[in-house]
Structure formats: structure tokens, C-alpha cells
From TrEMBL:
Pfam families: His_Phos_1. Catalyzes the interconversion of 2-phosphoglycerate and 3-phosphoglycerate. It comes from Hansschlegelia quercus. InterPro entries: His_Pase_superF_clade-1, His_PPase_superfam, PG/BPGM_mutase_AS, Phosphogly_mut1. Coiled coil: none annotated. One of its GO terms (biological process) is gluconeogenesis. This is 2,3-bisphosphoglycerate-dependent phosphoglycerate mutase. Belongs to the phosphoglycerate mutase family. BPG-dependent PGAM subfamily.
Amino acid sequence: MSRRLVLVRHGQSEWNLKNLFTGWKDPDLTEKGVEEAKEAGRRLKAEGVNFDIAFTSKLIRAQRTNQLILSELGQRGVKTIEDEALNERDYGELTGLNKDEARKTWGEGRVLLWRRSYDVPPPGGESLKDTVARALPYFVREILPHVLSGRTTLVTAHGNSLRALIMTLERLTPDQLLKRELFTGAPVIYEMNADSTIASFRDLAGPATKKVQ
């Protein structure tokens, strides 16, 4: 039985382009982001991937990426479930600020701590640990059963909500998780064992197939 899970970070958004903290705000994809999403679909088509079900967040940049991928695959009719548990990390008072502006307001060291620490949230926002606490239970309860039953599953979401899933899937420590790069529009394909561990995974942004020991 094939137990395949594909994670895709959304394509470039309008606020990514402007170097703004985005969080739960809802900008659309840029032209580049649309092309990144289409290219993700083309890469998956070249891999022979066909989806049985898809999950995405409540934010348009992830939803459009999902739609564009499925369109490239000729699978626009695939059932897609949207849930805010897969939304990006909430950046609180940083939301909407240019990263340079944030450093001027709070200081470079403080902003770096909020961005790169695992468990220190920005004012009024979420830490990465908080995002894990919200996204991971949803994954285990709502998404994983489909994968383990043999349904090829697509999750199109955000850098930090996907890291929350990757932390468990790839058995990463918090420090390793902070260093895990996720490129916009680059699918990561996981092959899972019956006990929900990962047999192997491929990041289509890179050349290697990796086995989880």
C-alpha cells in the first residue's frame, strides 16, 4: 500500500515580496507565486503523483497554491478541506511591519529572538512552539488517518505551520527545526510506514532522497 503525504509551502505572496511580517493577514500570490505553484504541480505530475484528498489553511495564498497545483495535475475536483489550524504563525504586533521597521522599533536582537527562537513569541503573537501545539494535533487527528489508509494526501500551507508537522515527521529537535529550510512552491514527498513513521522523503527543491533512521 502506498502511504504518501506531500507538503507544499505556498508560492510567493504580495507581502513576502515587500518583506513584511504576514502571519494571519491574507494577501494574495504575486505573479511569481502563481508560477511557483504551477511549477509545483508540474513537478508532481512528472513524479506521477495523483491526489485523493487535500488540506489547506484559511488563507488565500495557501488556497490558491492548492488550486493551482491541482489544476496542473488535472485534478480540480479533488476534495479540499480548509482549516485555520494550518494557518501561518501569528506574528502579533509585528504583523504588517517591514522587517527593517520592526528592528528599528524593538531592536535587532529582540526581533531576531522572536524570529529564530522556538518558544519566545512576539508581542500578542505565537512562538513556533505555539504553532506546533495548534497544527500538530490537527494533523494527527484529521490528516494522518487518510495517509495511513492509503490515500495520497496534499497539504498546502505555510512555512511555520508546515515546520510544525515536519518536526515530528523528520524527528527534528527544536534547534534542527529552526534550521530546516522550506522553499516557496517546492513539494516535499513523504513515504510513510504503517506505524506512521517515515520510510523516506524527498524535497523537490533538492537532489537527495533521505531515509529516516
